[in-house]
Amino acid sequence: MSRPRFLPDNFTLALLTTVLTASLLPCSGSIASALTTLTHLAIALLFFLHGAKLSRQAILAGAGHWRLHLVIFACTFVLFPVLGVILKPVLSPLVTDDLYLGVLYLCALPATVQSAIAFTSMARGNIPAAVCSASASSLLGILVTPLLMKLTLGAEGSTGSTLGAIWQIVEQLLLPFVAGHLLRPVIGSFVDKHKGRLKFVDQGSILLVVYTAFSAAVIEGLWHALPLSALLGLVVVCIVLLALVLFATSRVARLLGLSKEDEITLVFCGSKKSLASGVPMAQVLFAASSVGAILLPIMLFHQIQLMTCAVLAQKYGARKETPAPALADRQPEAG
Prior knowledge:
InterPro entries: Na+/solute_symporter_sf, Put_Na-Bile_cotransptr. This protein is mainly alpha-helical. It is 78% helix and 0% strand.
């Protein structure tokens, strides 16, 4: 029996269940400390596997489209933060201060990897460029996201300095990623063969972080300080942000004369934000008691972008084949 279309995907249901569990049965004391340690190990494993999944051939095949990558990075790390700041008079009254901080954090995050590539593939876009751009965005975010938060808000992490926060993120995320990629010749075939099972490591790591973060927030009185009107306002904020960026990326692609394949890559890589990167980085950049509220915008945006991009990918994928002469200005792909 097929799943009804109005139901969220399994991972979204698991996220909602995790938030509900943390709200009713928050962890504290020694249990919270043990789960925090387990969470750090799980996140390191998550990024280790991300590195092992990344094919060097895919990087080389997509690396030549430098103009496309620059535009994608500009959308991810310039357009989003600028919108978050200049729309403050409109966005801020709709949500609480912590939720607005979460919106700014959402705007500063790198692009997601797996879903951006999956939607680009479904829409018949430039897959090698999507792999290269999304992966590079994820790595750049380790350095750029803390700096953007510093610029837009003057926020400092729990380490007391931006450089300290960056080093913690490098240590927890980048080093395992690099180690996994260097070991790809040894473990790559195993990782590729068991992708379906290993996705539970991805999802399980995020669920662990969400549970510990929301437990701390609930103990600090999250739900008492968060009115229903602010949650509804957050839905509006996420929809408006995504709509503006989707419109901007499609218009920019046409103004630059990009091929339809490159337009698709720009739309899906330039408009998405990474829950997998955002959740662990939030633990470093913000106080434990505020992480729960700060994660709400990215969790909600994550679901909205998945539903919206699924519809867009089907629409793009149903188009007729573009005649070969129209692709003559594309750079040849390596390999």
